[in-house]
Amino acid sequence: MTAPVVGVVMGSDSDWPTMKAAAEALDEFGVPYEADVVSAHRMPHDMIAYGSDAASRGLRVIIAGAGGAAHLPGMLAAVTPLPVIGVPVPLKHLDGMDSLLSIVQMPAGVPVATVAVGAARNAGLLAVRILAASDEALRAKMADFQQTLYEQAKAKGARLRESLG
Ligand SMILES: Nc1c(C(=O)O)ncn1[C@@H]1O[C@H](COP(=O)(O)O)[C@@H](O)[C@H]1O
């Protein structure tokens, strides 16, 4: 088995229905990843250990999703030099606005690349792009993927124009 280069972590297993889209995107590009529950609030020492050891274990990007008072992505970014992508997970109350603001409003010097509320697939794709910056084969796959998006968008336009006669 190939060693994981992306860590997909979340504050609770209840985040997985949202976060699995990140894993699926990584699967599509053949990027090896690991997935786990790591909570800054409920397991602070484990969280610090996860972030501190991530780079030496071979991870190159961390995707961190959390809902509500979502401190996990920022706290991981505080203890690792790796890029951290934050996914605001929408919960029953406040529609993910709480999580979005908790993740996106980082103090200067400690960046978290925040995707849209619930947009775990984009987090996976962003991780692929980060890795692809230094991996020509992966960059070619990303370019193919973008071409497919382009063709699908063109086809939608053609169908719309056709339906209008
Ligand atoms: N935001 C955080 C953190 C954290 O930021 O450390 N740990 C758990 N949580 C969030 O609590 C929500 C409810 O969790 P439960 O479903 O386990 O009660 C989840 O969305 C999780 O990400």
From TrEMBL:
It is an enzyme of class 5 (isomerase). Keywords: Isomerase, Purine biosynthesis. InterPro entries: PurE_ClassI, PurE_dom, PurE_prokaryotes. Pathway: Purine metabolism; IMP biosynthesis via de novo pathway; 5-amino-1-(5-phospho-D-ribosyl)imidazole-4-carboxylate from 5-amino-1-(5-phospho-D-ribosyl)imidazole (N5-CAIR route): step 2/2. It catalyses: 5-carboxyamino-1-(5-phospho-D-ribosyl)imidazole + H(+) = 5-amino-1-(5-phospho-D-ribosyl)imidazole-4-carboxylate. Substrate binds at S12, D15, R42. The keyword Isomerase applies. Its EC number is 5.4.99.18. Residues 4-153 form the PurE domain. The keyword Isomerase applies. SMART domains: AIRC. Pfam families: AIRC. Belongs to the AIR carboxylase family. Class I subfamily. NCBIfam families: purE. Catalyzes the conversion of N5-carboxyaminoimidazole ribonucleotide (N5-CAIR) to 4-carboxy-5-aminoimidazole ribonucleotide (CAIR). This is N5-carboxyaminoimidazole ribonucleotide mutase. The gene is purE.
